[in-house]
User: Fold Sterol desaturase family protein from Novosphingobium beihaiensis.
Amino acid sequence: MPASSGPDLWVAGLFAAALSAVMMTAIVGVRYLITSGLFAWITGRVRPGLYKGLGGQIRREIGWSLLSAAIYGLPAGIAAWGWQARGWTRIYTDPAAWPLWWMPLSLLVYLALHDTWFYWTHRWMHRPRPFRIAHAVHHASRPPTAWAAMSFHPVEALTGAVVIPVLVFLVPIHAAMLGLVLTIMTVMGITNHMGWEIFPRRLVHSRIGHWLITASHHHRHHENYRCNYGLYFRFWDHLCGTDRGLSAP
Ligand SMILES: [Zn+2]
Ligand SMILES: [Zn+2]
Assistant:
């Protein structure tokens, strides 16, 4: 039987996809440790003592977050392999492949779709049974810290992990814009939880701020539980009457 026969190729593909998932897990885990570590360090400089007495909680946040890294790594690794090895995704690298205006628009589309998915799954996870099973871990951080960015129960991590890997198969996006989506996801995930507002008051309390989610908005969700469910935008919270305004973290 020739070495390049069907089953051998299939096994080689499976092995390459698994390797990609392991590498992606390591990348997500290291990215989490570096970025959360950086913002925790900044917090120590600008709000000394804010995390005082939270050592035990922070250790649990890091443990859940590293477990989440593996859950994020699996679909992300498979999508990355599908892109690189098989050309299955709609990620493109030639800027001329789509009109230039699609670049910023694709960024907005990705953020809006992720936000919509997050809002509704998050609301669902605040029903009593799903909350106990999937979401109590995230709310065990009281108050959350910069280390809580990925502190999720595996079930909740899975609901978050599939979004971007599914979207890259459906909605065309330039690789640089995808990098920007992931950067925004990482930075906002951390800054929204770190216990103080990093964005200027003038922006947070402006007309644009009325539609954007930063720490002042998400902190209220962690105080109040029954409001402010969104991820990036306050569109769904405003529309569904679940927006209770800003907290003063
Ligand atoms: Zn949160
Ligand atoms: Zn919640």
Q: What stands out?
A: The pocket of zinc ion (ligand 1) is lined by residues 138, 144, 193, 218, 222 (CB under 6 Å). The chain has one domain: 6-239. Strands lie at 91-92, 173-174.
